[in-house]
Amino acid sequence: MKTRTVAYWLGVCLPALAGTSIAAMELRVMTSYPEAVVSRFEEAFETAHPDIPVQILWRRSNDALPYLLQPEQGGVDVYWTPSRRNFLALKHAGAFGPIGIDRTGLPDKIGDLAISDPDGQYLASEIAGYGIFVDTDRLQELGMPEPERWKDLADPRLRGEVALPVPSQVGFAPMLIDQLLQAEGWEKGWNTWRAIALNSRLIQRRGGAITGEVSSGRLAAGLTMDFFALSTMTDGGRGKFIYPHRTTFNPAQIGIMAATRQRPAAETFVAFILSDAGQRLLFHPAISRLPVRPSVYAKAPADYSNPFTRTLDARYDPVAGTARSGFNTALFDAAITRQQSALTRAWASVHEVEKTATTTEQPMLQQARAALEALPVSEPAADSPLVTACAQRHRQADAETRCAAAEQAWDAFFSARYAEALRLADTILTVRQGQTP
Fold it and tell me: Do 270 and 416 have their domain in common?
């Protein structure tokens, strides 16, 4: 590949490279995609357009944003990556310029879900959906039908059989958590997540580990994204991917920077990524993503999912979800990650009481349930000070202090409530046995 440069591997060298004559001749594309993805697109583009050399500048999403907020976007021409948060922030900062390409055949939405910027400042380049990867044989052994909704994973028959990603540790999980909160409402959604957590092993490493837990037969179901499932199945792994009735999709996007001096070349690159030829590359087993051009699905591998032909409720407010991602992550860790054992013990005791609860036991039982379903905060506004602090906690010391203090208070809240629920349920059981509580 003739234009691969050390900038892909050594992001620290980018400022030095920006002023060189080599950098001035090349189209600079910043991305967080791995080499296995980028190399195939770069090679295909350079074959189609040998007159446009490309320099790939690799940056993780958290590092890309401050780099692109520099004057003239740090000399970058095109930004191409799966990071909705970054695209929203860069649009707000005026970092994108116009994209003068033919968009015929490129829908702006999947159902009611917008995947490209309504103002056309950046466009979806591929999409990935949230769903459930299952071992159908294991489900049959457990007497379980295939799940159709997220709440089906709370079925007691799945105790210890679900892989649940922790949003503070697994990159795709914050949006997974939030889409259910938006679908079911704040209180009901958190109750559903806690009910699912009772059946779950918490996954605190890379997202691809979830499908591995299922395909290996260790677990019956895992909450994941379609491209992880597609990759696992392409490699011969056992399993089936299911989109629940209400889910959402997370687009990767591409935009041209406002300060680019190579707009024609940048538009040629964007047009290629979104062309039939570019979109078909997403079917490659090493990539396994969903194209945003519906026409190319006619050439998809067998059993490849086509979200444009499915009847799915994919409504989602990405602005609100992006804003409160850090807030939700902190609340999840306080309610579930650090309290899963206490939550499980308390619910086990409550469920034991419920089996034969008498009328006189109902008031205390209801108190126990209320304690287990309590939340320390109501649904926050996207621009509330605490939401903002949790969004900025990894970049600003005062924001970290404020969000960490809230998280500590939430830890104490859930610890006390779960302990109270266990005490109430155990009191009922003790009284039944004719002992003094």
Answer: no
